[in-house]
Queue: 2 jobs
Job 1
Amino acid sequence: MKPTQTTIFWLNWCKEELAQGKNVLFLARGWSMFPSIWPGARLEIKPIDCSELCVGMVVAFERAEQIVVHRVIDIDQQFFQTQGDSLLQADERCDYSALIGVVVCVNDKGQHRALRKRRRAKMAILTNNMFKHLLILLSFPLRKAKRFFKAQTP
């Protein structure tokens, strides 16, 4: 998705508000963090220092002049890496300068809940990925059979 003047404005506004120590609210779009965060859920983001970042936190960061919210899966001295809960692949490694803030709570369907970092986050992501790969493998014979029978019909 190509960034527009509006998205660039909101990105800069969020950065300015967080730099002043204020929390920022915005709506989630997309399914990459499903089932933890549903599309349309209201997210509250607070500023975070890079030294406080740890695996399992859900963070907001800048990518291609847009705000992305994903879970941290790896951290080292210069970079951090994230992945959406429902995605098969991890994102590219990001420099700490791209970090915008951490998601502290979600208001979904009128229910306000704090969003905590997942314990055993790497194990949860690994299990989630294994489950997704298993579903893909199980659906392959079904798709192949569907194509076969579609070709047989006159």
Note: The mean pLDDT is 82.
Job 2
Amino acid sequence: MADASKAEAVLRKIIELRPDAKWVEEINRTKAKLRWFQPNIKDEELLPHIATKGTLANRYPDIKVLAHKDTFAALMNICMRVNPKDYDMIPPSFNLSLPGDRKRFEAYQLEQKDIVYIAKP
């Protein structure tokens, strides 16, 4: 079972940061618009939960590779280069083990002085 001890605080912060989205916390599991699933959920268990139109989830069947942050970030970086207007809600991501990304990050860091960064080893 995944550790969810910090999930409530994170979700409350997400709701606070996006008042325009009109997100609310729902105890009723059938009406949720944003669903967060543990990493080890099986595809057949996941399907009924995400079948509702308009539901967002952190996991989708048969695309487990997107659950890996580095792969997902690389794909989103491609999307942002192809169509930046449609993907402007995704913050840039950098893989510091790649020389090109390290240089991009250093340049970005000089431009964006008031931003908090999250580093994942």
Note: The beta strands are 34-35, 56-57.
